[in-house]
Amino acid sequence: xxxxxxxxxxxxxxxxxxxxxxxxxxxxxxxxxxxxxxxxxxxxxxxxxxxxxxxxxxxxxxxxxxxxxx
Length: 70
Known about the structure:
alpha+beta; 3-stranded antiparallel sheet; 2 helices
């Protein structure tokens, strides 16, 4: 499993948390996605043979949240 932390400056509430975790967890190969509201980050553990960082970022951005560049 690979682990990444994405900065998502627009995270501000539990709705953001639920939306982002739901969108990321729908992708194949995701082991865990966890949003830290105060830190405005998303920690993702995933199988890099099944999904890549770009697909995770795309899933988050598709629901209206901007991911800060790495």
